[in-house]
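Archive entry. Fields below.
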Amino acid sequence: MKAITASPYIESPRGLSSSKGRLYIATFGCQMNEYDSQQMAQILSRDYQLATRPEDADVIIVNTCSIREKAENKVYSLVGRFRRLKEEKPDLIIGIGGCVAQQQGKSLFQKAPYVDIVFGPQGVAHLPNLLREAKKGRKPVCFTSQDRDYNIPFVNAPLPEKNPTRAFVTIMQGCNNFCTYCVVPYVRGREVSRPAEDILSEIRMVIQQGVKEITLLGQNVNSYGKGTSSLPSFAELLKDCSRVPGLERLRFTTSHPKDLTRDVMKCFRDLPNLCEHLHLPVQSGSTSVLKHMNRRYTRDDYLRLIDELRMLCPEITLTTDLIVGFPGETEKDFQQTISLLERVQFDQIFAFKYSPRPFTRAAGFSSQVPEDVKSRRLTEVLALQNEIGLRRYQSLEGKTMEVLVEGPNKTRPDELIARTRGNHVVNIPGPDSLTGHLVQVTVEKACYHSLRGKLTSEDESDMREKYGIDSNVCTCDNP
Ligand code: SAH
Ligand code: SF4
Ligand code: F3S
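PREDICTED_STRUCTURE:
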């Protein structure tokens, strides 16, 4: 999962128009929320253009995440800061969307009386109406119903970003798994798969806007279409998506190990544009902890999947999520997680201290692990993974590979950020005009979470001629 950050959307490419209002969206949480924020911007694009600063906005929306307590608290502190803006500009409309909104519902108005609209993830499609109500003065406005239909309409409007290189496409909403630690099934509702034709139409539309890489999104994409006869299986959907003309790269996230079928694994071997990267959250290396988490697979099941994946696609990059300090996790259980990391050799992990969440079963388990033990275990897994990750990245030094250039590196002018098919970030010297292009690079140096490379001599001599590129000095602080 991406680090939780507030990410303002960039200014509308269509330029400023005096008749339009200004909309500022801050997004916390996972890619599902990023996608929802993008949908909000698209749905409201007729009447609002995006502002880069909340101070300039007529409408502020905070799209929230509730996955861990820390994420939830970040939301309250940001919303608190908008109170002053409302005092200065009483017409300002403040909306709280996303998972904290769904979790807290109307009680958010007591916590923050200056908020006008509260809406859960399934309220995204209703946002124009909710805004109209709020403007009419019918405050507070709240939408937290969770109906079962797939209710995010296909929004036939340009993406908010100018010349987008990558795009997310949601294929399903919600989750039926009820892992005992997780709030998602309560805030996102039950699984609903999106019609395949809508997915394919959206892919075609974003490709026309210049997108080269699509990531199919869902809390558990592997259960796409499950229990219906009218929808294809996830493997079939992948094949259909991969055939859309002009699609250079295809990815998907997230996968639950219990639903990862051989047919899906074979797609890594068989579909030329499916990138060789799988994010497969393991959560724990201990079968007993996995049982208490209600994950419905064992340590051995997981390891078998890894072996099979590597047999079918030896170059696949594997990443994972894990939780330390789940209730009842003993030192022996924790060592099982350590040994699983050693055995699998992930390229990257996202590790979290267990955080009790509302509605969840594990929050009521009696054997909660003390905070200092969780912190020590987190430090230990991160230290181990740093070594493993660096070794994995170092194994790419000297190799030449295809990268998709995503854009300039904001902190280092003259440098570009690019991504390998295996999802490694590569910094390369080069001009902005390469953005959106697939180029060959040679990896020169591995850092902890990124690579440093240069265009291969063929591409480079081309580029030198055209743009006069030079410097290749690694300026990062890592070894
Ligand atoms: N649907 C995805 C993950 C969703 S949440 C999946 O099933 O893999 C992203 C990650 O947050 C999870 O994989 C888990 O590692 C972590 N997470 C979820 N609930 C948590 C909690 N209560 N405490 C700590 N980490 C949690
Ligand atoms: Fe949460 Fe488990 Fe569903 Fe993932 S599969 S969203 S961890 S309940
Ligand atoms: Fe957070 Fe909701 Fe995503 S809780 S991780 S924003 S589904």
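CURATOR_NOTE: Residues 400-467 form a domain with the OB fold (Dihydrolipoamide Acetyltransferase, E2P) fold (CATH 2.40.50.140).
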